[in-house]
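Handout, section 4.2: multi-component inputs.
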Amino acid sequence: MNTSIRRFFYGDIPGQESAGTPVPQGPKNDWPLWEVFIRSKQGLDHKHVGSLHAADAQMAIENARDVYTRRQEGISIWVVKSQNIHASRPEEAGELYDPAADKIYRHPTFYDLPDAISHM
Amino acid sequence: MPATLDYILHLADNALILGQRNAEWCGHGPVLEQDIAISNISLDLIGQARSFYQYAAEIKGGDATEDTLAYLRHEREFRNILLVEQPKGDWAYTTLRQFFFSTFQLLLFQRLITHPDERIAAIAEKSIKEVNYHVRWSSEWVVRLGDGTEESRARLQQAVDDSWPFVNELFQVENFEIESAVQVNELQKVWTEKIQACFTEAGMEIPETAGARSGGKKGIHSEHLGYILAEMQYLQRSYPGCEW
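Output:
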């Protein structure tokens, strides 16, 4: 018997809409989709904040500036065409993620820390 | 020497009226991202206008505030150039007009930052980053449309034909500008070079005839300003002092 449990993780979009599937382009919507990553301040990582349409990379960065940094959210922008992002398959979630569930020894929680050390 | 009231109002009115015009795109932009872009530019301009009006209100004294200057002056008291009050037209007209105006504003503000009136210099300095972006954004649209499809090119050409008659007024020195530290007529040559550089990239040509329409700086406006003011001032005139 082969049962499959569908679980969606962040970043996984089921079926036809997963990133990597070419977006059908009609005459009304011929600008490609871009994913936008913003770094909020020096030393932090760029974080995915959303997506937008633009004709080219330059326009995508400017659109991102106008759409996602209006309230001083960031100091650096990355954009990448959505079609260049490949997502893990939701159907494979079981074999990809479940095996880690019973391996608690991978978490560094078995050390005795001196009281003087904070923020660990 | 401090700037005169009329000069400050001229700078403020240019920004306010173009900001109001661009705001008409809010919710009507060609795509969501550009709708937000033009609305942001609109807000930048209205922000500049506020800074100038606040200063103008201090100089005028009495009961004057930034709001009374924006909402309670009549058409003939507005000192903006005719170009900014023209209807927004299509996307080609809006972006081309923005390119003409922002290129001019950048050259002007680059000189105003050394204006002996420190308030004017400070406002110019604060605004110049915004204006740099407006020039970049609008010039890219001019190239994109001019170098685009047959239709986008035809629309841009129409926008050039329609807006060019108003360009000359940018560089006509009005009385209140004579004592200013910056003479706008001196900006025309370098402005034209900047426009030419963008037009070359876009495959467009600058019209040979010089524009003849002017009068805005004197308070003699085209028929369009009255409609803008009617819409913009209606609430304050109907419900004086209204806030929300």
